[in-house]
Amino acid sequence: MENVLKRIFSGKSDDDMHNEFIKFSRGIFANRYLLYGKKQKDKWTIKTGCEFANFLVRRCLEKSEGEISATGIIVYTGSLGDSKIPIERVKQFMGIKQYVINSKVKVSDVLEAMDKYPKAFFALTFSIPTAELKIKAKAPKSSKPSTKGDAEVKADFCSLKTTNKELVEDLFFDFPQFNEIKIKHILDIEKVIIPTNISDPVKMREMSKRKGKIIRDITVDGKTEKKEVSFEA
User: Fold this and answer.
1) Which of 183, 166, 189 is nearest to 227 (CA)?
2) CA 23 to CA 19: how far, in whole Å?
3) Helix ranges, 89-221 (H)
4) Hey, which bits of 94-201 come out as E strands?
């Protein structure tokens, strides 16, 4: 699975990309999809914003087997009743549930839950032979237009140490070779395309498409570059 930004900049469109942007209204969203990477002797240190949490969990586990010791939370509005992941307890606030995880769990059960509940947020921390992933056990920040402009924001929601070259090349698809790299994105949602044949407000929101552009602001080994792409998803 490629990360959503790589797919957009490659001109692709699919349901996963649509689901990624449902939470955004019209407006300009600065400092989104933050990325930081540093090459070390035999591995990479990567830090990202919250938007990459599910992607990192899936990509770290998709070629793994057996059990992992996982801690963290799964954030979801509904029930995870069909999930085989052991739940320690459930916290709830304003209709949002946080399922607390602190146990050994089968890799296959995590991936199965991610397939069954694609709109859930998997903030999990674990280690496997090729990666050590740490994600803050809290809900992601709200999707509101920026009020801070271009103020510097650190990529620190997810932290990863990995030897997985393919994962690194996916995240930093335009500059896969680097010593140190920082990337931030500006989302400019210019229009929300609302379907005309739907009356249910929930379905209307879920089926509405977002149209706009994404600006990719890159600083790699001291050099800066900007890229822009239009999208509809």
Assistant:
1) 183
2) 8
3) 107-116, 165-171, 201-207
4) 96-106, 121-128, 131-135, 158-162, 180-193
Annotated domain spans of the chain = 4-46+144-232
Q: Where are the beta strands (DSSP E) in 21-137?
A: 27-39, 44-48, 67-76, 89-93, 96-106, 121-128, 131-135
Separation of CA 9 from chain center: 16
Over residues 24-65, the pLDDT tens digits come to: 999 999 999 999 999 999 999 999 999 999 999 999 999 999
CA distances, 195 to each of 26, 173, 209 (Å): 16, 34, 8
Torsional class of 112: left (φ above 0), alpha (ψ -120 to 50), beta (otherwise):
alpha
Q: Which residue has the tokens 């050099």?
A: 223
